[in-house]
Amino acid sequence: MKKSKYDKLELGCGQKPTPGYLHQDVTPQNLVNLDFNCNPWEIVLPKNSLSEVLALGVMEHLRFNDFDKTLYHMEGLLKKGGSFLFDVPDMKVWSEYLYNLTHGKSNKNPFSEEHVWATIYGWQRWEGDEHKCGWTKQGLTKKLKEVGFSKIEEGVNVFTEKGIERGRFTREGDAHIYIKAIK
User: Fold this and answer.
1) Per the confidence metrics, is the pTM higher than 0.85?
2) Which of 59, 68, 120, 172 has the lowest CB atom count within 10 Å?
3) 81 Cβ contact list (under 8 Å, min separation 6)
4) Residue 109: inside a domain, yes or no?
């Protein structure tokens, strides 16, 4: 069992680990000391030991079953009142962009054809950079309630208020569902 001064965990930190967190990734990262090199649902920590879990651009890379396993595991690791902050592409909006693309209305989209396809299937720049699940706000909210999260806050401010910034946060039309699920 891992003992640490941190009670925060970042899933899929990649090459940009957030300071003040334990770090997990499934792929070893050059120059990044991972605390956990495993799947997110395999992380060994005491139950109710974390105040926060962060996953930026990670959850859509999991298969639906693995997404569920990760949600249940993170909910179990969080203390009462702890939060799981993550984002996923809003498939309601991206499916509208895809419809426009496949029906001769690409001029209505704020992004190129490549960007639309890549948001749906992942950019595929490296092994594991594929998208394996997709969500709408309604489906995601229902899933989070099933898992046992007591309160769900939504909006990019759940990240920006913590000083976390990513390009997609400010790109108009780059539709993501930004979630803070509270245990």
Assistant:
1) yes
2) 172
3) 51, 182, 183
4) no
